[in-house]
Q: What sequence folds into this?
């Protein structure tokens, strides 16, 4: 038994600086080191990672299609502040399951939210909101007691009773940009490249910045799972916590605009197929191989990674 153990064993290097502790074979260790050495930590990329919207009262702010249509029928201006929303559970690899849910997107001090001189509750803002968006105002007024009972240190003090509790004050325009959406907790590590201006709830993160198409492909890749899955804490039931702090340390190969465009084209093809309910496995393997080739992995190294995660 002792001789067998000596022949089959592998030396283990213990991690430093609080990194995850993972047992790897020699070849797996070499692959991981190779990929990590090529990349640049995401905290040094020109990107932003932010939470989705926190309403403080989903019952009032998140509506279904029937209620959306009803509000718009009563007042066409309602459409200006009704946005489709994705929740953490809706996000899939290169896609989403839209539950036909919509968010009443109402920032603090709306519709005077661009006036930076307003620092507390604005009676003028509420008056204008009631006049200009009467259907939405009347809908929210049904929940005024619930809405007013939210965070009592802020509601009715820092912002109006009818406003969202957290609306992304410093990055709300990012929801209209090309972005990556992913759930804050998940077993499957799915990432969706969004060009449709979805809003997300607080069960999601969004990433905005340069080369989002390539980064989506990388995060959905077998390389990402092989090298970095264990960077994220495992919770009950195999769920992983995908907080920003864990992403910051992940090194990723940087690419140019031309390469990013190639990935964008392939991703959009995959997403169109998913919308049509057409099988996308072949295309997903194709884009995964594009990532593997960018990292200039040998055929043996590719087989090791694919054995685990493809």
A:
């Amino acid at each position: 038994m002792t001789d067998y153990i000596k022949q089959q064993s592998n030396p283990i290097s213990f991690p430093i600086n609080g990194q995850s502790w993972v047992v790897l074979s020699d070849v797996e260790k070499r692959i991981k080191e190779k990929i990590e050495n090529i990349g640049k930590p995401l905290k040094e990329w020109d990107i932003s990672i932010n939470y989705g919207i926190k309403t403080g009262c989903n019952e009032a702010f998140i509506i279904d299609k029937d209620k959306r249509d009803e509000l718009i029928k009563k007042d066409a201006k309602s459409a200006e502040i009704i946005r489709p929303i994705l929740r953490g559970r809706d996000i899939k690899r290169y896609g989403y399951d839209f539950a036909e849910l919509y968010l009443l997107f109402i920032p603090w001090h709306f519709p005077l939210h661009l006036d930076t001189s307003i620092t507390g509750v604005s009676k003028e803002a509420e008056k204008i909101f009631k006049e200009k968006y009467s259907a939405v105002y009347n809908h929210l007024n049904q929940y005024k007691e619930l809405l007013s009972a939210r965070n009592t240190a802020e509601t009715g003090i820092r912002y109006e009773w009818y406003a969202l509790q957290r609306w992304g004050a410093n990055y709300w325009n990012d929801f209209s940009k090309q972005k990556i959406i992913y759930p804050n907790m998940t077993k499957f590590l799915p990432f969706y490249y969004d060009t449709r201006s979805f809003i997300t709830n607080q069960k999601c993160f969004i990433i905005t910045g340069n080369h989002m198409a390539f980064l989506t492909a990388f995060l959905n890749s077998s390389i990402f799972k092989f090298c970095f899955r264990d960077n994220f804490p495992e919770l009950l039931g195999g769920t992983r916590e995908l907080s920003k702090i864990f992403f910051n340390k992940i090194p990723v190969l940087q690419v140019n605009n031309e390469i990013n465009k190639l990935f964008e084209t392939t991703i959009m093809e995959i997403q169109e197929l998913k919308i049509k309910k057409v099988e996308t496995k072949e295309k997903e393997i194709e884009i995964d191989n594009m990532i593997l080739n960018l990292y200039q992995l040998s055929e043996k190294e590719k087989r090791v990674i694919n054995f685990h995660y493809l």
Observations:
- DSSP finds 13 helices and 14 strands in the chain.
- The CA atoms of residues 95 and 271 lie 6 Å apart.
